[in-house]
Amino acid sequence: MTDVQLKENERIDDLEINGFRIIQNPFCFCFGMDAVLLANFANINQKADVIDLGTGTGVIPLLLTAKNKGRSCVGLEIQPEMAEMAERSVLLNQVEDRCRIVEGDLKNVKDLFSPQSFGAVTSNPPYIKENSGLKNERDTVYVSRHEILAGLEDVIAAASYLLKTSGTFSMVHRPSRLPEIMELMVKYRLEPKRLQLVQPSENKEPNLVLIEGVKEGGRECRIMPTLMVYDEKGEYTSELLKYYGK
């Protein structure tokens, strides 16, 4: 590992896998459990080139690289300060030969990449619809949670453009958006193939959904067992701890 220059309020966090670390700023958007779950859920061929749409801190490309999922990984991020911080995390881990960050707008993906350039696409997009007008685009937390710079259809359309035939699209989102998600995936020829709900505890409704689509795939969707986050004692379940390498 190498040392990089940290900026004001930044810290280095341990990703707890193969010695990988990440730079984060607690006053900006920091990654959560959903990113860890997606990196584990994504079924990626070792020879595939991967792109993560709206990569934020770059946590998903770093986790995929640490897990040796895919041949190479690109993180696409529209916010300059987040892209720059993610790029320094790549340098911190000395994986520039397998992982890189590109600053750009996924809505303009056709200007950045050729069609069918990737074998796998991942995304942990903003979950909340934006109906109240444009907010501060420099508020990284708000932009990361609300669809003010890109909506769900923008993400899925970009994924379809980037994917090769039979390539996989893996995404984490809210179950309340599932009808819209599946409708859009079919519209853009990303046939839903695997789906897993994530439930906080036994008596609570699922609050996350992991879904995988295959470009030009056949119509058959597997519903996987629901992942429980906390057991009856309020502690992480053994299955979840495996996702964190424990």
Structural write-up:
The chain is of the alpha/beta class and 246 residues long. The chain is built from eight helices and eleven strands. The strands form two sheets. Strands 3, 4, 5, 6, 7, 8, 9, 10 and 11 form a nine-stranded mixed β-sheet that branches. Strands 1-2 form a two-stranded antiparallel sheet. It is globular. The model has no long low-confidence stretch (mean pLDDT 90).
pLDDT < 50 runs, ≥5 residues: none
User: Could you report the average pLDDT, rounded to the nearest whole number?
Assistant: 90
**Radius of gyration of CA atoms, rounded to a whole number:** 17 Å
User: Beta-sheet strand percentage?
Assistant: 25-35%
Number of E-state strands: 11
Number of helices: 8
Shape: globular
Biggest sheet features: 9 strands, mixed
Terminal-residue CA separation: 22 Å
Please give the share of residues in helix: 25-40%
Order of helices and strands: EEHEHEHEHEHHEHEEEEH
Specify the structural class: alpha/beta
